[in-house]
Amino acid sequence: MKTDDFDYFLPEELIAQVPLENREESRLLVMDRRDGRIKDEKFYNIVDYFTKGDVLVLNDTKVLPARLIGEKKDTGAIIEVLLLKNKSNDNWECLAKPAKRIKKGTIISFGEGLLTARCIRVEEEGIRELVFSYDGIFYEILDKLGTMPLPPYIKTKLDDQSRYQTVYAKNIGSAAAPTAGLHFTKQLLKKIEDKGVTICYITLHVGLGTFRPVNVDDIAKHKMHSEFYNMNEEVASILNNAKREKRNIIAVGTTTTRTLEAIASKYNTFKSCHGWTDIFIYPGYEFKAIDGLITNFHLPKSTLIMLVSAFSNKDNILNAYNYAVKNNYRFFSFGDAMFIKKI
Question: What is the CATH class of 3-63+161-341?
């Protein structure tokens, strides 16, 4: 299967630059997983598509203000660093720009020396391992110096940084938001619970996989970067009971989906566990965990559109995307949503 098989035409003006004032006012394209039938909705009406006994699973990761602008200590050259993964203590895997300026031993200063970093490892694709030095608490310093790592297709400044967090964000560690969750408000989650739906949370810290394009023709040769996940015992029990009783498990976002499928694939059940996953889901994959998927509209030729194509099929998904383009849906992180399920 070729990467170009997952391409579609998207006018630039449909890429949402700012979030809507009210999160749940987004549009919602509801699609039947089997036959691709489509219905237009508002996101706040998603409650009508749940059934008592369903389990809704969300990713409670919290986005780091992970974008730092600093200077090379020896030359003063401007360097941009994006924190991707905490390797251990103060060691971080980072994406550096321009990476060619960052060699082993290079020292970068941020905030006039409030924070410094030394490169201890050089890897491919702009990846550098940096060890940070500072006085105080790292995350407090990051709050002062860092900004939200908005995707490059968003050109407009985000005035309210909290709009790139879900309302249930809890466990800090992501380099990007699990954007399907941005549509939920606390009030909407309460309505869903009142309908008899069980809501539970897992954690997956979103890393480089979100930013990394597919640069191979044969998608099977693409390599995902690993991301940290965690599931507790209570959630595992809820999900196992739902499977046993044949109740629907609905994932909010591709990050939640990857976590649930990684655990179910590894253990053939759900269990309290944590670790790293580089699962890559594309057509041909047999889903073991989820029965429904709430997701945003994804970039052409991305691993994310491949995942949603695997959950339904490529023709259904590309037809839905072309419909969304013709009907002026908003795309990507701050855009509208899809609900793929058996209607």
Answer: alpha beta
